[in-house]
Amino acid sequence: MRRTRHERALGTSDGPAHAIIDIGSNTVRMVAYAGAPRAPTVILNEKVAARLGRELNQTGRMPDTGVAQALAGLARFRLLLDGLGITDITTVATAAPREAANGPEFIAAVERLGLAPRVLSGEEEARASALGVLGAFPGAAGIVADLGGGSLELIEIGDDRIGQGVSLPLGTLRLPPLIASHGDLKRPVAKALRDAGWDDPRGGTLYLVGGTWRAMAAYALDRIRSPLTDPHGAAIGAAEAVELAAELARADPAALRKQPRISSMRAAILPDAARLLQVLLKRLQPERLIVSSWGLREGLLFERLPEAARRQDPLIAGVAHFAAQRGCSATLAARVAGWTAASSTPGQRGSERLRLAATMLALASMQVEPNLRTHQGIDWALHKRWLAVSPAGRAMLAATLCANGNQLEMMDLFGGLASAEQLESAIIWGLSIRLCRRLGACSRASLEGSALVVEDGTLRLTVTEDLAALVGPQSQKDLALLAARMGLDPIIDVTAGGQDFHKV
User: Fold this and answer.
1) What does the pLDDT look like over 216-267, one tens digit per residue?
2) DSSP state of 413
3) Of 368, 358, 372, 370, which is closest to residue 326 (Cα–Cα)?
4) N or C: which end of the chain has fewer CB within 10 A?
5) Domain that holds residue 437
6) pLDDT digits (tens, 9 = 90+) for 377-420
7) Which residue has the higher pLDDT, 409 or 428?
8) Are residues 141 and 246 in the same domain?
9) Domain annotation covers residue 233
C-alpha cells in the first residue's frame, strides 16, 4: 500500500499507522501508533475528559453533557484520522458505556460517526491490560491492577500466561460516593475484594496500570528527586509504597495541583486513589509495585502481533527503529557490537542486549551536532519511553553515550540509578565504541580488517597491513584510555597474512 504524505511525515516507515480509540469512564482517548510493531511509537495522543461514569452510582446513566462532549470529541478524532489517512482504527468502550442504561443509545451514536465500537466485558478489559503489561515487561509475573474511572481490574499473570480476571466497581469516579457512605474505603473495598475472591495475600509484584497510578509514580519520582522523568517502569518497594500511599491519602488536592507533572483532574482524585492503594497493599501484600504505561490500548496492539513478533525483544526493536531513522542501521550496530565484544562483561545478566542497544544509540548520536550530542544522548537514554529496561539499564545507556564522547565527568548524574560496577562496564562499552568509530569510521573495510582482543593481560588492537594508515595518535590515545579502564596494557599490531608484521 502506498503511504500518504501525512504518513511519511509522521515517520510511519513500517507501514500505515494504527489508531485505538478508548471510550472510558473518565476520558475518551485516541492514540495513533507507528514505528516498530513490537515497540510502537505514539505519533498522536488526544483526549476528552467527558467523565461519562461520574453519575453511574447515582442515576445509572451517563450524563447528557458528558455524552455530548464524548461524541464531539469522537467526531473530531474521526476527522483527524481521516485527514492523516489512518484507516486501521480499533474502537473499544469500557465500564461506563457497558453499565449505563443509556449505553446502547450512546454506542449507536458512535457507530453513526463511522466508528465500530466494541464494548468490552470486565474480563476482556482485564485481559487486554494484562497483555499490555506482558508486552512491556516480558516474563512479568504478579498481579495487574488497572484503575480507570469506572472500574478496577485485577488479573494474575505469570509464565507468559494470563489468569482469570475480575472487574470491580472501584474506579476513581466511584470512590468519593463510597467514602461519603462509609466514612473511608477500608470496608467497602475489603468487601468487594472478599466477594470477588481476592481478599488474601498474593505477594510478588503488583503492576499498576492507569493514568492515576502514573500520576502517583510521577509524584514519587519527584519526591526522591530522581533524574528519571518517565513513570513507566518505576519500581516502588512495599515499605516505600505504604509510606507514599499514606502521604498522598492525607494530601490536599490544591497542593497537588501545584506539582508541575500532575494535572488538575489527577490532583483531585489522587488522595482517594491512594486510600484505595492502602487497602490493596494491606490485603494483597505485594513485595513491590511497578508502574506500567502500557495497558489496555497497548494490549490490544500486542494481541494483534503474530507469535514470532511477540517474542522479539521490545528494547532492541524500539531502539533499532529509532536508531535507523538517525543513520544507524541494525546491521551496522551489530557489526560494531561484534567488533567491541572484548569490552563485554561476562556473566552480567542481560548485558549483551543492553550493550547492543547502547551501541545503536551511541552511533545514532553521531548524527547530532557535536555540541549537542552528549546531552541529547542522555535525554534519549533517561527520558525516552523504552520498554524492558530498568532504571539501572537506563543509567548504563546514558553512561555509554557519555563515554562515547569521552565526557566521563558526567557520571555523577547517574550514580543513584546504577552501581559503580554497572557504570564502569558502560564506560568501557562507550570507550570501545569510540575507538571503533574513530579508527575507521565504522566502515565495512575497517571492521573486517581490524580486531580488538583481550589476551595475556593486554588489550590488543590488530590492523591489517593495507589499513595501517588508519592507525595514528588518535587511535593510540583511544586504545590507551580504554585499556586503562580495563586494567590492561595496550598493544597495536599491524599484521600481514594473519602474522604479526610489526608492533606500534
Assistant:
1) 999 999 999 999 999 999 999 999 999 999 999 999 999 999 998 899 999 9
2) G
3) 368
4) N
5) 314-503
6) 999 999 999 999 999 999 999 999 999 999 998 888 887 899 99
7) 428
8) yes
9) yes
* Percent of the chain with pLDDT strictly greater than 90: 90
CA 59 to chain centre: 38
CA dihedral 212→215→220→223, nearest 10 degrees, is -140
Instruction: At 42, give phi and psi (nearest 5°).
Output: -75, 125
Q: Which of 119, 138, 160 is the last residue of a domain?
A: 119
Containing 193, the helix (H) or strand (E) segment is helix 186-195
Report the chain's mean pLDDT, rounded to a whole number. 93
Distance of CA 243 to the CA centre of its chain: 25
Residue 173's alpha-carbon distances to 50, 55, 65, 122, 266, in angstroms, are: 12, 8, 16, 17, 11
The burial of 368, by beta-carbon neighbours within 10 Å (0-12 exposed, 13-18 middle, 19 or more buried), is given as middle
Check: pTM over 0.85? Answer yes or no: yes
Q: Are residues 354 and 495 in the same domain?
A: yes
> Starting at the edge strand that comes first in sequence, how are the strands of the sheet with 41-48 ordered?
41-48, 28-34, 18-23, 88-93, 117-119
In a domain, 388, yes or no: yes
Domain count, the chain: 3
DSSP state of 469: G
Phi and psi at residue 80, to the nearest 5°: -60, -45
Residue with cell string 522479539: 312
- Widest pairwise Cα distance in the chain: 89
Same structural domain, 192 and 177: yes
State residue 348's pLDDT score: 58
CATH number at residue 234: 3.30.420.150
Distance CA 80, CA 43 (A): 12
